Amino acid sequence: MSNPIDKAQQRIDELQQKLKQAKALKSRIEARQKVVESKKKRTEETRRKILAGALALEMMDRDEGVKARFMTRLDKYLTRTDDRALFGLPPVA
After folding, report:
1. Above 60 in pLDDT, residue 1?
2. Using CA atoms, how far apart are residues 2 and 12, in angstroms rounded to an integer?
């Protein structure tokens, strides 16, 4: 026959195991939520860049002064040869 103290200890052990499993599940859920949130932020950032870029290109098409100022800034900002080529800028020496 089992001792009541042994039964209680067995129950405690079972509950501690369930608690460990619940904490592990919580951690996995939180990690998934972080990934989803991070992906959403990256997607929103990309969309903002695309929209702002579209506006900048439209403004450059409409106004040569804006285009000249923008190209001057791009010339100073862009360092990668392939990025500069997109705007017809020569490679940086």
Report:
1. no
2. 15
